[in-house]
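Researcher: Please predict.
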Amino acid sequence: MKIIELEEVDSTNNFCKRYQGVEDITVIAARQSGGRGTKGRGFSSEEGGLYVSVMKNHKNFPAENAFKIMLNACVAVCKTLEGFGVNPVIRWANDVLVNGKKICGTLIENTFSGAYITRSIVGTGINVNNEIPAELCEIATSLSAELNKNIKVSAVKKPLLKNLEKDYSVADYKKFINWLGKEVTLKTNEQSITATAIDIAEDGRLIVKIDGETKKISSAEVSLRL
């Protein structure tokens, strides 16, 4: 796969969308001026973080298996962080936390043709040595802050790229979840709902119990708070 390394870009996902070549690519930036998270949120992307997007073209990849792309990215990040001695936790569907604070965000952008995914762009942003903005310090952390020492971005990049090439399972994804069986908060634009998290379905939906009734929830419908 072709690797493109940049000093600065608006976002690595956007770079992939503009790319005119036909091959699969990995784009790495030292800084993003317009980093994006899920549901249109901004993503702080200052120098010292690791910002990577992998664009792959697919043949005969059923859209119903889209969660597979997301879980592969999340598990790759968790296994990378685990190698540095921290204990990552996945907050469904695609945030990675350490000690209750977000250390990595993932943005998946798929292109569809009928019932198939023809292209996927998997963007991951890991806080390594970048300074966390004051307004985010209560909810975000970095690898260097957790380990109380400087970590080279290149030391994180190498294992991450290797792990992003691997194929994982829902069972691998669930190994990094410690909140099944516990009460969680499901948030929509209008309300917050308390539920008991039961399991993660093969298609990525969250199985919960609300007022005694078992339901399957899509991440497009709600976000999760632990």
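Model: The CA atoms of residues 109 and 121 lie 5 Å apart.
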